[in-house]
Amino acid sequence: MAFYDLVKTDREALVLQISTRVDHDFQTENKENMHRYFSDGDTYIRKTAYLAVGRIYLANVSMRSLIIVALHELFSDTDAKVRQTVVNAAGEIGKYDFNAVIHFFDQGLFDSHHSVRNAVIGSMKKMGEKNPAPVLDWSRRYLHHPDKEIRREICHGIELRGRNYPEDILPLLRELQFDKTKRVRWTLVHVLGQIGYKKGCLKKVVAELLKWENTELVTDAMAEIIDVHHRYRNFSYYTQEEAREYIAHAMP
């Protein structure tokens, strides 16, 4: 039976059971339960397991090295679901201790399976909210990587931090303004749109874009920002017309 087919009390009991068994694996230097949960076909079982890893790591300083070793061993598994869950667990740890798990992201960026690479992006987003400085420093290393997909993934991964603190990621995004790959360029424009519609963000994004040299990309980004204000009209701080007028007055 799938996780969300269970009634609430049974889900709570299962969460406790998974957490207890994962903790037991660490206590006994075993990986049997972790492997079973990390490879489970139910997304929510895997999520419960990696959240448990994050909580155990945070609460038990003396076990941290054992946890990292166990994750490292699981990361060589041939099952992409296991590797994906390892990255997600590393993301939970990285919200507080990024340096301890940085190697999982260095490796996960180049994983052969898209689900593992997507887990890197998702983990970057959640780590960037809680622990932005080391995550953004790490991201900068890959902004000009020869592989276009790496550049695109990095651009996408820093998006969530920018929704509340656009000034943190705009200098990194600026480095991509002349990227010639369509997928990277599209992602860059998309991210600029996504970080421009929350309260206090539009003015910061527009002011930064007016300093960029690639006027064609800036024009596309401004159009995307205006469009996002319509698509996300129930969540945006300004109406689409207010955003359009602000941009029109700001443009030279």
Compose a concise summary of this entry.
The protein is mainly alpha-helical. It is 72% helix and 0% strand.
What keyword list fits this structure?
252 residues, mainly alpha, Leucine-rich Repeat Variant, 2 domains, 15 helices, elongated
Architecture overview:
The chain has 15 helices and no strands. The chain is 72% helix and 0% strand. The N and C termini lie far apart (60 Å). The protein has helices spanning 8-28, 32-38, 43-59, 64-74, 80-94, 98-108, 114-130, 132-140, 148-157, 159-164, 166-174, 182-194, 202-209, 215-231, 240-250. The protein is elongated and about 65 Å long. The longest helix is centred in the first third of the chain and has 21 residues, at 8-28. The chain has 252 residues and is mostly helical. It folds into 2 domains: 7-141, Leucine-rich Repeat Variant (Alpha Horseshoe), CATH 1.25.10.10; 164-252, no CATH class. Helix 3 (43-59) runs parallel beside helix 5 (80-94) and helix 7 runs parallel beside helix 9 (148-157).
* Oligomeric grouping of the chains: single chain
- N- to C-terminal separation? 60 Å
| Poorly predicted tracts of residues | none
Portion of residues within helices: over 70%
Topology overview:
Blueprint: H1 8-28, H2 32-38, H3 43-59, H4 64-74, H5 80-94, H6 98-108, H7 114-130, H8 132-140, H9 148-157, H10 159-164, H11 166-174, H12 182-194, H13 202-209, H14 215-231, H15 240-250
